[in-house]
Amino acid sequence: MYAIVDIETTGGHASANGITEIAICIHDGNEVVKRYQTLINPGKEIPVYIQALTGISNEMVATAPVFKEVAYDIYHLLQGHIFVAHNVNFDHSFVKYHLAAAGYDLQCNKLCTVRLSRKIMPGMPSYSLGKLCHHIGITNSGRHRAGGDADATAELFTLLLQKDAENAIPEALKQRSKEQVLPPNLHRKFMDKLPPTPGVYYFHDQKGKVVYVGKAVNIKKRVASHFSGNNSGAQRQEFMRHIHRISYQECGTELMALLTEAVEIKRLWPPFNRSQKKLEFNFGIYTYEDQRGYLRLAVDKRRKYSVPVHTCSSLLHGRNILLKLIDQFELCPKFCHIQTNTETCTGASGEVCACEGHQAATDYNQKVNQAIEGLKLSLPTFAIRDEGRTNDEHSCILIEEGRFYGMGYISQYFEVNSLAQLKNHLTPYPGNDYMQNMVMNYAERNPTKMIELVPIAEPMSYSLSSEA
């Protein structure tokens, strides 16, 4: 027996919204044998736009029973039957959530008439209930009301049962089948193609736009985990509705997958990726020349197109680095914006410091250049050579002077003899501090996979203060 369900609600997710109407059609596999329908008082105001859509007003539900008063009847109509709905995960999430709040644990198999329609009747211009029914000639006199939509879904389901020449419905009901947990608009073939390897996967919307990028040690297993569970929150419901297609790219290792994910999030800026959009360090150490020709160092917020001498996780982090440089290279704390008062300079030179005009700009600037060069030399240049996507290749990640340069794949027979040579085989990517720290931490844990390299000497150049 099948229980064909449709509900009207006050909003899009169960945990913060109520049901205003429910209709259940009990179907024996040939026809509807029993109907149940009732308005429900959701215990909260129905938004105006939903009143306009459904025609259900606050006045209509004022005297209706609350859900707990009808939970017994609803539970016993559904339990032991197969729960059927158009976009079943939406209706099921609401009913299960509110039954649980009333003390009933609903456990039943599910069937989605959106997914079944795509399989049994491919090529339709739309699979929304209204447009699909109009296209195949099913009349719905109560659109956006639970009774009318449940009756239309029941008629659609009868047609699907009749047309199911390839046994899509019995296959979907098999215990091993995860068909009904998938998003309503996602075809099973995309899941079947996913490999059990490290890599990055992409969820696309109806127009092909990437709405989410993820990384995994096992792509197939990780993607499946997105669709398990019964999370009834707004974000998950919205997320599931937007998934129409999945693509992927394999990576040699989990680290390569992590870095590729970070690159792709910055490139594509998917709407459902939130965690990595604010992971960059916000400060940097900059150098500029003042009006008297003295080079100065300062910690400042990162700005677009500015290139800091060094990146910092915080203002305090940057100040601590400057304090070390001041002490090691006898720099002026005033010229490093550490000492901001008008008293005598607290640096090693004291009253004869550059800030008092007792050192020529060329002499002082030489110390600043030495400090910058010392800071750069303290930043490592190395490659991580690790497993590839196939047996005859290796993955390779390059850090140059403490900054992420890029990554790629090289032959397992390729000998890394120089930095310049290696760069010709890798793809540069715009890195960030999150990526750099990830590689640094991995190198610290896996020193045998590191290849130390000599930095390429380049003439130093400095940006003006307007860039800082």
UniProtKB/TrEMBL annotation:
Tree of life domain: Bacteria
Regions that span the bilayer: none
Gene Ontology biological process: DNA replication proofreading; nucleotide-excision repair
Pfam families from the UniProt entry: GIY-YIG, RNase_T
Cross-referenced SUPFAM superfamilies: GIY-YIG endonuclease, Ribonuclease H-like
Extent of the signal sequence: none
Domain GIY-YIG: residue ranges: 196-274
SMART domains, per the entry: EXOIII, GIYc
An example Gene Ontology CC term for this record: cytosol
GO molecular function: 3'-5' exonuclease activity; DNA binding; DNA-directed DNA polymerase activity
CDD domains hit by this protein: DEDDh, GIY-YIG_UvrC_Cho
Functional note: DNA polymerase III is a complex, multichain enzyme responsible for most of the replicative synthesis in bacteria. The epsilon subunit contain the editing function and is a proofreading 3'-5' exonuclease.
Stored PANTHER family: DNA POLYMERASE III SUBUNIT EPSILON
Subunit organization: DNA polymerase III contains a core (composed of alpha, epsilon and theta chains) that associates with a tau subunit. This core dimerizes to form the POLIII' complex. PolIII' associates with the gamma complex (composed of gamma, delta, delta', psi and chi chains) and with the beta chain to form the complete DNA polymerase III complex.
The protein's name: GIY-YIG nuclease family protein
Lineage of source species: Bacteria, Pseudomonadati, Bacteroidota, Sphingobacteriia, Sphingobacteriales
